## 1
Amino acid sequence: MDFNPTDDRRMLGDTLDRFLTGRYDHTTRMKIAGSDAGWSREMWAEMAELGLIGALFTQDQGGFGGEGADIALIFERLGRALVVEPFHGALAAAALTQDQRDEVIAGSLIPIFAHSEAGTAFDPDRLSAKVENGVLTGSKVAVANAEAADIFVVSAMEGDTPALFAVQATDAHLTPYPLMDGGRGADVRFDGASATRLDMAPADLLDTTLLALSAEALGLMERCKDTTVEYLKTRKQFGVPLSKFQALQHRAVDMVTEIEQTRSAVINVGHHLGTDKAAKYAAAAKYTAATTGRLVAEETIQLHGGIAMTWEYDVAHAAKRLVMTAPIMGDEDVHLMRFAAL
Amino acid sequence: MNLDFTPEQDAFRAEVRAWLDENLSSRLADKVRTSKHLSKQDMEDWHAKLHARGWLANHWPEEYGGPGWGPVEKFIFEDECAMANAPRIVPFGVSMLGPVLLKYGSDAQKAHYLPRILDGTDWWCQGYSEPGAGSDLASLKTTAIKEGDHYIVNGQKTWTTLGQHADWIFCLVRTSKEGKPQEGISFLLIDMKTPGIEVRPIHLLDGDHEVNEVWFSDVKVPVENLVGPENQGWTLAKYLLTYERTGIAGVGFSTSALAELKAVIGKTEKATDPLFAARVARVEIALENMKTTNMRVLASAAGGAAPGAESSLLKIKGTEIRQEINALFMRAMGPQAQPFISEALEEGYNGPEIGPEGAAWAAKDYFNNRKLSIFGGSNEIQKNIVSKAMLGF
């Protein structure tokens, strides 16, 4: 039992921290997130150059990380900095060919995972998208960074079995829009698109995606909590800092307690990724992250008071993003019932 | 990052399990599983078996009879004991007074009292709380006034768990009214047979006699029974409380209680209730997270860092989880949680069994374990501690 990061991961974390602090400050992020594209190709190239995409994959996959703990570490930090570049999409490269994955790692090919439908946010057995004779028909909703895609990795039924398919982005019909928490997404319709079946089972990519989402939420929670704790120490009312009021102290402690539980949930799924326990721990992590995420976001806004209601205040955007990550790939109810059934 | 136990730790777990299999009678395990009242003899017998194996005072240094375990071994041991439904080790001598004597006791005190804790000669109880001093422990009023080579003790202690069995009580007493309340407290060992001591039972809302009031009127205590310097008892008191909180997450207890809950659901109308299934899933997820949170705190302790305020987080969340499992267990019984046949909680009961197994103790356990968020420093006090120590408020 050892909870200390390896030297490699410590270095990766330091690299990420330096880059995000130096190159991805709040002003830059807001500019990128509000831009026409909703992400930055230049930033993506820098991130690829730093090896941040390669760190999502194992050596066998052409990368130099790729374990649950690597993915958790990266997404936690990306979450903390509210990064909008298509990292979740990059994870889907695990399902592509080695040549394609090499391009993804180099930053020159962008895959996007299109999964949720109007009728099912998560459950791959209830998909209505289907592939017959290599042709895909169906609609996906709220696909983040869809406009950035060069290639879509799409979940769809083939016969009675959910499977993953690769589809060229040029074969998709997009209805794009800005997202509540910055960046852009789209509804994506496939109307007889040519689809190549991939070997990876949807469940495996979904487990990894749930880990990434939960870790991202954890990073956002830490950002929210740290800022709130500092604010409580500095903001004075009735002649004393807010941190002297016991009602507020206890609410801050409740946040800390639940955030530590979320950290444990992320560690659990990271540790069990690729085993037969992954699905259960992934459901537990997503449930925990979504539940705690809303608690922390709402408390962050409430404990700050009016200032956190303003567009100008940076942590308000973190709280907003934290709330908006919850419904992606199934909210707490979906994953609670899934956990109960697994 | 690695969540796995080492091969040595796995082997240790197997060793503990095999020992429990050999030494924990099914009679005793069944009493614990079905929440029957344990007799003093039950507890003493269990202590004796553990002592014979060298596992009773499992956090003491080896030179005083401890097995030399680290926190992970201690956790594994407690986990296995809980899963096997072993009686819990009565903590007052072994886990509370023991560490205080080891750190602050004189050589003579160590030589005299420690072996008697181990071999069961002395049953200890705790004299901390008073009617006017609960969370605000430092406001305690029981006085000890020095007269020659004795202290004369007057006052009242309360919530004295299993004091009805005790030979000795360790007490926080006021030896000075000067300065801050914390500055006039001393830590005193008192023989329960001394004239002037009266133990009065307190019956709890589940009908149990588990705790007591202990009254002192002009009780003569030899000065050599003082532990540590006079008026420095608060330091010892706090040290004991920090110790009390290690292992307080009760992960093993919750794990075995959750297994019991799942086993019983199938026999009730909750078997097909998706809302109830969600409630169970929710607490199971919290427990799975808690196991790892607990491990993280243990690992940092094993690595040399002292668990401080983190143990308060464990106490808060761990007790919430245990209480929720108790509540769900009672709810699973539906209206059959209502019958309360106290004889059914005694060994050898052979009257009618009312309701599914568990109905006899579901409500009693629920009410009894409301104490979890109150004792060892209430959960609100824990939040004060975290707020100060971790958040710097």
## 2
Amino acid sequence: MNRLILKYASPATIAILAVFAWVTYRRIAAGGPGAIVLPAAIAVAVWLIGTFVFIYLWPRITVGGFKRIFARRGLGGGPIPVNTIYAVPDSSSQSALSGSVIATGTDDVLYVGGWLDVSAGPQILHVPGMGDRYFSVQFTDPASGGNFAYVGTRTTGTASGDFFLCKPEWAGETPPGMTRIDVPHKAALLIGRVFVANEDDRHGAYELAKRIQLTPSVR
Amino acid sequence: MSGFLAWVAGSGVVQGLIMGLTFAFLTTVLILNGVAKRETKTVNGWSAVRNAGHPGNGLLVRAALQKALPVVNVFEEAAYWTATTDSEGKRFSGEHAYRLHFAADQLPPNNAFWSLTATDTVGYMVNSPEGRPTVNNHSGLVPNADGSVDLLLQPHQPSTAAPNWLATPQGRFKLMLRAYLPGPAIIDGRYEVPPVVMVQP
């Protein structure tokens, strides 16, 4: 679907504008120029306000789209419930046929994905020891689309670890041995990547990717 | 009530709303594409967006970059370059063969991996029955005598240098180069990806 929209965007736009021109023409032909004053005024007002609103909401709509896809369809293994992480066993080129959202990704990593929501209480992200294997878990803010935190090789190293994910106003204690990460809008899109060298390496990478998990914090 | 509905239908209010929303959407797309273009730096035909995914982006930039590159990594995590044209500015086509020449020690510097992938114009990988659509630092690339590396981009397997061959799709295509955990030379902008040159038949 995405592919079709991107491919036929220009002709579809031209067709829609042609319909608008025809509707406007019919209106003028039937009622004179005065008949289009009100619709034109409304169109201009909606145009101006709508443009600002669309730009403001665009990141939210995009990240929200991933949330919906995860919740309804998942990444090949069925719906991914909130606060669980799913590891994709195939590479991107293998899942390309299914039209998966990560089909534009790379074969060099296995992807994991999930939707984090800490509004009902903190969650703990567990990552296994990765040795010298590259990995990352990206935290994308649902309002701005910015990546406000990373867990992984670059930021936290490749040793196993537990990360305490909570809303910024959380006043409780961080469990010993854990690193606290504040989640600004109480929710985040989590996308993880685990390096895979080649086909023979896939199994090992997948076993590690599966162990990147979320669990509720027990109080 | 029915009189009001009839007036709404007859006055063109609904048509005005629909047209306004459509224009708003099209204007948004044009503005965001324009901003994304301004945020994109192109050298030798390779385009990179350094601010993608950055939490400090303003209203316009964050929207434009979510549109261009939804939920991608920040540049320090993974540097991405895309190219759709060769060194002469002609769009890539599966009808031609291309060469990408990296001088010695000029493969993308990184602390994780690099990879080069050929995709269709939208960005989907195309599985070629003949060969892999991607090469990376684990592909066993064969360097030249002087340490430089030539990658050969064409749809059919070449008679020589098969390890350095990247299978391209039929028709128009796009290239994507990734460097995960990019090295300092990429982060500070010193590193430049060399141009893709069409091989004369």
